[in-house]
Amino acid sequence: MPEAKYLLVGSSHAALEALRAIRLVDPDGSMAMLTRDDRLPYSPTILPYVVSGRSAPDKVLLRDPAFFAANNCAYVPNARAVSLDAKARAVTLENGEVWRYQSLLIASGAAPAIPPVKGLDGVTYHVLRSLADAEGLRGAMGAAKTAVVLGAGLVGLHAAENMAEAGLKVTVVEMQGHVLPGYFDAKASTRIEDAFTTHGVELKLGRKVVEVAPGKVMVDDGTTIAADLLLVATGVRPVTDWLEGSGVLVDRGVVVDEAMRTNIDGVWAAGDVAQATDFASGNKALIGIIPTAVEQGKIAGQGMAGDSYRKDYAGGLPVNTYRFFGRVALSIGRAAATDGVEAVETASGAYRRLVLEGNRLVGYASVDEPFDVGIMGELIRRRVDLSECKDAFLARPVETGRRLMSEQWR
Amino acid sequence: MGVAFDSISFKASLCDGCGDCMTACSQAKGGASRISIVPGAKAGSFETALCRQCGDPKCVQVCPSGALDKDGGNGIIGWDASKCVDCLLCTAGCAYGGIAVDESVARVGKCDQCDGDPACVKVCPTGALEFRKAGSIFNEYGAKEDLFVPGLSGCQGCNSELIMRHAMRKIGRNSVLATPPGCIPGMGSVGYNGKTGTKVPVFHPLLTNTASMLSGIRRYYDRIGRKDIVVMALAGDGGTADCGFHAVSGAAERGEKVLYVCVDNEGYMNTGMQRSGTTPYGSWTSTTPVGEHMQGKTQDAKNLPLIMTAHKCRYVATASTGYMEDLYEKLDRAIAASFEGFSYLHIYSPCPTGWRIPSSKVIDACRLSVDSNFNPLWEYTNTSGLRFTHSPDNAHPVSAYVKMIGKYRHLSPDQLAHIQAKVDEQVALLKLMAAESPPPPAAHRAPAGSSTPAGAEPSQPARREIARN
Ligand SMILES: Cc1cc2nc3c(=O)[nH]c(=O)nc-3n(C[C@H](O)[C@H](O)[C@H](O)COP(=O)(O)OP(=O)(O)OC[C@H]3O[C@@H](n4cnc5c(N)ncnc54)[C@H](O)[C@@H]3O)c2cc1C
Ligand code: SF4
Ligand code: SF4
């Protein structure tokens, strides 16, 4: 029976960061990284670029075998976990193999959430979460003339842009009233929507797909759209099916505390699969982005290796850096908030929205104007009081933010 | 032994906002400048955004394409244009504006330190930007044989171990070492179960006679024709400034060919933190307590290195582990001088235990002690006189330094004013001596934009004070 002191399920951002954190304090403890994928680690975020052809599938791998050899970690591909026996400290794989562990990291990420649309199980549709998905979509694009995308989130819009650039007639159907809901307020979204419309993508906002059939999609406004290709990008949900019956507490994701511990001794969780603290509200929330996966992975790894320098998770901030048709949209924190906050908007050429609460920055978004997202995130996280420099900050946020972080550095 | 890397440092107090660095960078990189100078909080002050080449780089961790990676050889976080997909996630990772959108090419741009010769540093006219080579020095000497055994029992965070191990690596095996009573033998240099803690001959003189014994040893080696042996002391301030002083003074007066290194932790820290002759005014020690009748030491410290200049020694210098490049250069000159006459090196060494500073703040304390002119860095030779090796202008107020040290916690405003006045007086005297000295030989003059601008050089235009931070 294979055994590892540290067993990591998942091979993406959260697991890789945990590996690093563990090896900082424990260079020798046996370690294995299991993944259901058949390749070396890669990021789901890179997939739209594989679809567009900008990145070759073999050039997007984040680590090579030499890395795992140097870090004394067994990398096990094609290893889908199907169950966890927390008492016996053992994980069973699809192929029947059982792995014993001393500490376990659940970093199985998220998978596309498939909405209950009539007829969907009778047609071929695409999702985008694995390299195989991306290669499949790229292949299908070649033969298709029309495409329909369900959902105007990041994944849907990325793909829609790629397909439009490749010459397909693309329609995006989104339930909410504007694109990228949650990240951007309506005004910012309008700019993004305009770009899509200008590039020939039809946006059906505030609309639902009611039924699909081979080659066509019916929308609740009564229209039927031709679709050689159908992409479902209506969000993701944590991969927790393999934890059923294990006793690990799962709400919408695996519930973790400030140290990324689950309710079960010796079991940690991090990344898209984990339901950790939200910075703004302090409640448990799912924030499925790389920066949170990386931070949570580090904290979990530190906990697993008993690193005494571990710091509690302060909560996740939504971060969004989005390039569309060569333009740029950025947002961090509660950039779309309206209640109980002071929002300052400017729109001359570029759009900018700063959200403050009690003279502290809580959110920032811009379209067509770059800013240092990381600096603004740090001002939010440290709850830096801006009263002394508020006018300067509102007038020149980038310069003033840089100044503030330069001072903090010393 | 780990590796260390060179780094670009920015001193806000010296920046006058000319922006030359930005121009030079954008020329060198053919795009937006990787360093950005922005207005500071006070009028006329400036701050910067610049990649710090983090040891734990967030930009690398969040990059989904593997386009960013830290080079294990030079420590630079490199960017691979062919892998980058322009997602800008790295800009969300960096809290210092170290990687940002270069609008001229619509991609990210970041500092790569220009192959070890940064364009920005070269043009900085004020010395606000420095390319600090401490990392390569550390690597070079770290790779040499450590002449102390592992497991010296110093206090956590004590920088005497850094001084001992690195100085001896530089000096090498051809040396005879004296370590009079103090922290250095206390750490085990002279005794481990009947064996020494060093790999060179070491002896443990009395507190009073170190320099005399070294004089004899040197004369013996001279007689048998061994001219290659460095005869040296690693002594504390007590054994040098107080009870050992007659021997030191005598040896200096006779011009004995000895390298005498004083590791000054401002007291008898090894035996219970008593005051010494170099304990500064106002310091708490176990013999200058703080209470109803006393508020720390009531006398000023004696300035031992300055006293040594009055002996017309071959070489006298002050140094600090906060400025390793400077310390290393001075070690070179001190060793060379010790074959010709008395060579005296005074290294300031904060004591985390006796001074009540957190172990992690010792090097910070070293830096601030220099940056506040509490311990100015200079060197003296009997032919060229005195010169500063670190600008004494634009210094922080001394309050910034004493604030971080527990032994000054009780200081009254009056006491603080006294310390500041004393510091100003010392600097004024040193400046006077530097002004009286002939201009330094070309080799000693810092080249333009070098890491240690020599503030007192007549060729350096006097710069207006920008701001105190
Ligand atoms: C198209 C797309 C675009 C995105 N764009 C952005 C963006 O711009 N910015 C951003 O911050 N984030 C973006 N994200 C989200 C980001 O990719 C995720 O937040 C991040 O990958 C989460 O990392 P993770 O380690 O938690 O899990 P994942 O990356 O989901 O990895 C899960 C891992 O677990 C493995 N696994 C799953 N189940 C099992 C099992 N049962 N047994 C064994 N192994 C298993 C998988 O093979 C995989 O290795 C995007 C995602 C997608 C899909
Ligand atoms: S870009 Fe920022 S995060 Fe990356 S190494 Fe530089 S300072 Fe660190
Ligand atoms: S923009 Fe930054 S994070 Fe994105 S791929 Fe390029 S280097 Fe990596």
Automatic annotation (TrEMBL), chain B:
UniProt GO BP: small molecule metabolic process
Protein name per Swiss-Prot or TrEMBL: NADH dependant phenylglyoxylate
Gene3D superfamilies to which the protein is assigned, alphabetical: 3.30.70.20, 3.40.50.970
A Pfam match: Fer4_11
Record bears the keyword rRNA-binding: no
Region (Disordered) residue spans: 434-469
UniProt keyword Oxidoreductase, yes or no: yes
4Fe-4S ferredoxin-type domain sequence ranges: 42-73, 75-104, 110-134
Swiss-Prot/TrEMBL keywords: Oxidoreductase
MF term (GO), any: thiamine pyrophosphate binding
